[in-house]
Please model this.
Amino acid sequence: MDSSPVTSTGLLYDRRWMLVDQRGRFISQRENATLSLLRVQIRSSTLVVFHKDHPSTSIEIPILEPVELNSMVRAEVAIWDDLCNAIVYPQLYSDWFTRVLGAPCQLVYMDDSIRREVDKSYAFRDEITSFSDGFPLLMIGQTSLDDLNARLAYPLPINRFRPNIVFKGGYPFKEDAMPLFEINGLEYRAVKPCARCNIPTIDQETGINYEEPTKTLASYRLKDKKILFGQNVLVSSTGTISVGDEIHLR
Model:
C-alpha cells in the first residue's frame, strides 16, 4: 500500500481477521505454511482473499458494518495467552479456508468493541492491538536487512519478516535505538525487540521452509536465547502513514 490510515491497533484492517482451530486457538504460518500463499485485497467494502497460484480460487468477505454486528455470533478465541471475544463469520467463509488449507478452521473478526491490551510491561497509555502477536506495528530498517543479506548466500526479501514499517537511512539495526519518533505528526514508540519464530524461514512465494535466515541470525542477533530482528511499535493516536514520509527522532 502507498498509504494507510493508522488506528489505535495499527494499520487500518491489519490483523482484524483471524483463523482459529476447533478449540478457538489462532492458526498461523507456524502450523500451516499454506497461509503464506494467500493474498488479500481491499475492494470497497469487501476483503478479497485468493491463492497466489490459483487466483480464481478466491472469496469475497464482507467488511462488517456496525449495524450488522449486533446480530452476529461471538466466541472466545485465544492468541497465545490472551483470550478475547470475536465475531464469528457464517460457516460458508470458514468452509472456504478449510478447503484451501486442508484443515478445519473458522474465520473470526475483531470489531472496535473488542479491546486487547498490549503487555502492560511495555504499555504507556493502555495501548491496544488487534490479532497480532502482541503489538500494533513492527518496524525494520532497510539497512538491517541489507546487513543480513550480506551474510547470506542468497538474499531475502523483506516480506520474510512481515514488517508494517520499513525505513531507509541510518546504520544497521538503527531501529533498536529509536525509542520515540514521529511520522507525519503522529507519535510512535519502539518498545520491544521482536523475537523471531520460524516464519522468516518460510518462502512467501512457495510456502517452502528453509534453514535460513535463522541459522545466520543466531550467529550475531541472539540474546537470552532469542533471535532479535525488528522492533515492536506502539501508537497512541490516529492519523495516516505514507510511502515517502520522513521519520523524526525525538
